[in-house]
């Protein structure tokens, strides 16, 4: 293993672990980190999507074992995001890189602000218990398209949009972890078909991400408060958005 691959492997594990503490994928932070290490933006996105896939699969395995996952609620999101993620990936290859980067910075800032300031209902009696289809399908469409376009997995949209519809944030954290691997892998396959993938990089980063995502979810459920972790992650994402925007201008 060369020096750069070792750094990326460790980075994948650490970021997957840290972001799993907040119940979200690490792609938003991994993409700028990879570009700063010299990985081209076009290759950083599919790498981050693959890392998101395996790290959130690790989180989902943990959620299933602990019986925290409402599979029925996640299915409409998964179905629509799988269809739209390849569309977003295809569009990204036809837009100038600078335009995609500007959208990425905007999404970083949005996700960071949502983690810091968005709040759902404070009372369990106010949460919805139904299983709608239309609302989650629309969420999946938006999240899937942006997942493919930016290489971010879509979790930063799924969680706040579902909570805004009145669902329990703890339940949505598990649903988001369940949905993100599908949209991420769907977009990843499109990038792979277009030749933007390094197999060696994926093998090491993916294995590390699985371990980080699984371990991070276990620690979150047993030792930490996801809301507090998300506030810290929100600050990190906003700082990343500022740094990337400075490089753009």
Taken as a percent bin, the fraction of beta residues is: under 5%
Helical coverage, percent range: over 70%
Distance between the termini: 36 Å
Strand segment tally: 0
Task: Outline the low-pLDDT stretches.
Answer: none
Number of domains: 1
Principal-axis shape: globular
Overall pLDDT: 83
List keywords for this structure.
249 residues; mainly alpha; 10 helices; 79% helix
Q: What would your notes on this structure say?
A:
It is a single chain. By secondary structure, the protein is mainly α. The chain has one domain (3-248). Helices cover 79% and strands 0% of the residues. The chain contains ten helices and no strands. It has helices at 3-21, 27-36, 41-65, 71-92, 97-117, 134-150, 155-164, 169-193, 199-223, 226-248. α6 packs across α8 and α7 packs antiparallel against α8 (169-193). It is globular, with a radius of gyration of 17 Å. The chain starts with a helix and ends with a helix.
Describe the SSE topology.
Blueprint: H1 3-21, H2 27-36, H3 41-65, H4 71-92, H5 97-117, H6 134-150, H7 155-164, H8 169-193, H9 199-223, H10 226-248
Helix pairs in contact: 1-2, 1-3, 1-9, 2-3, 3-8, 3-9, 4-6, 4-8, 5-10, 6-7, 6-8, 7-8
Compact overview of the structure:
The protein is mostly helical and 249 residues long. 79% of the residues lie in helices and 0% in strands. It has one domain (3-248).
